# Entry
Amino acid sequence: MIKIEKRNDVPMALYFFTPFIAIILTILGGGIIFYILGFNPIEALKFYFITPISNLYGLSELLLKATPLCLIAIGLSFCFKSNNWNIGAEGQLTFGAIVGGGVALLFYNQEGFYILPLVILAGAIGGMIFALIPAILKTYFNTNEILVSLMLVYVSKLLLDYLVVGPWSNPEGFNFPETRQFSNSSRMPLLFEGLRIHAGIFLALAAVMLSWFILYKTYLGFQIKVSGLSLKTAKYAGFKGKTMILVVFMISGACAGLAGVGEITGPIGQLHRMISPDYGFTAIIVAFLGRLNPFGIIFASLVVALTYLGAETAQIFLQIPKYTGQVFQGMILFFLLASDYLLFFKVKILNLKKNELRH
Amino acid sequence: MSLDISFIGILIGSIMASSVPLILAASGELITERSGVLNLGVEGMMIIGAISGFALMVITDNLFIAIVGSMLSGVIISLIFGFLTQSLLTNHVATGLALTIFGIGLSAMLGKNFVGIPGKEFPILFSSLRESIPFFGPILFGHSIVLYFAFALPFLTNYFLKKTKLGLVVRAVGDSPVSASNQGINVVLVRYCCILYGGAMCGLAGAYLSLIYTPQWIENMTAGRGWIALALVVFATWSPIKVLIGALIFGGITILQLHMQAIGFRIPVQFLSALPYLMTIIVLVVISRDSRKIKLNTPTSLGRIFYKEK
# Structure
């Protein structure tokens, strides 16, 4: 017989172990789906999770995709920890890229060491401003931040579309929906010759360090964590709830904006319609899988980046649509949430015979 | 451009058609939310309904099976959400997001072999009356049966919630699960049913898109309608009749935007396309500003996890 008991406190070791259970279950689940679709599951999974990272180029691609995911998820961890459901990071990423890209386009025919920092700063500010919209509406108008941040995703994407088709489109571009190429001074320096991995990864690592410091070593971090655990306690302690909401959204938006600017100044080098394969949404999964912990998020961003790469490889070798990446991403989150049950409840398997003897 | 009376009739008819998926999905989600469950997976359930309906239509060549199958597929996929949130007590927001991401991915995977296949014509009712009566003809007649169902649904939902005992149970579970439970109501069971019902309606909404509105399968063809449906429920302050009004407004904006493009209205199309989303935000601000008003209508336990010590 199985008996379920509520735990009094969450065992920390299990808290960081269950994400691994979720990953293993996802791989098994993926194998089953591939089998149903008529593929050899072992071979398909190999194409998905091993082939993409079995060479240097693949590893560089993995880090390239993990960089924006990590950056955005770090920002989101501030929101989620304090119970603010910012799910519009994709919009903040897009708007950051628009503002940063706008600055880069101003300097399209100039070179100078100061250009890239300006572009990056503009991107962060753009993301921050865009994230402030749901934050201000939430704090002053009591509006649901989930819906507002999400609606703004569509607004930002349409704005980007308008700009690259209309006023910002490349005058020599034969009406393609894209802007001019940025000048070299607006591009992230590449780390290795022939690989796409760029200096943006240092931004992500800096964000990890900084967020660890803020969350665990400052008063603000303490406020964020307390508000997340209990809003009543936070109020009782006299924390300024409104300011905190604005701050966590600004941090989150800035990170997403940086991720956007990292994409356009890194691998892309201009603005066009498709600057992000939904990194902003996928980063939500990364944040959860990383347990909202800065170092956990690094690990989670690599795992989730692999689902992107795997989907691309599987599309090439097995002709499976690359949307399968999203199937894996959804499954990871499902299994992770499900395995959280083990954190709050103890599942005991009772030996019936022994009990009967005792009676 | 002649704005004669019969054109306006046709315009209203097309606005009604474009609001159908919103009415269906939002009415389903409304029941789910009234029971205290926030399911953000509407978009995912809709897209699964869209591909299942279309695939079943191609395979069986039977529209009835396609429609019923799409609803069933919505039920099945919402069962994942129900099991996680109700039995494993997971966070509603995160689970719903996972459902949407999973649904979009799975639909593309299932729909791989159905891209580019032309759809079948869906039978419309009273097509002769549509032509013979000016103005009212195109508004009232010549629609699919799903449209008539969609327009009846908000009234049925309203009746269910306000006049039936079961509706009272749903509202009680949403407003005060603890007292409902003490009254001997099985809160988890009620919530399961409401989630599955929401799934069925979202599945139907998706099938309307792939079988009737634009009869074909396109990846990601729901294009954010699920999220608008979610916003509509808040917009309507959880009242079914207001869902109908809201859906017509949103449908109206969508159609108007197409017509404005056609007559060469000098506003960039992207701004017109952004209107429904901006409208949602503005309306949310207006109705949320008065915190008493929104509290009065919001299911009190919305999105909160209910756990009963056994």
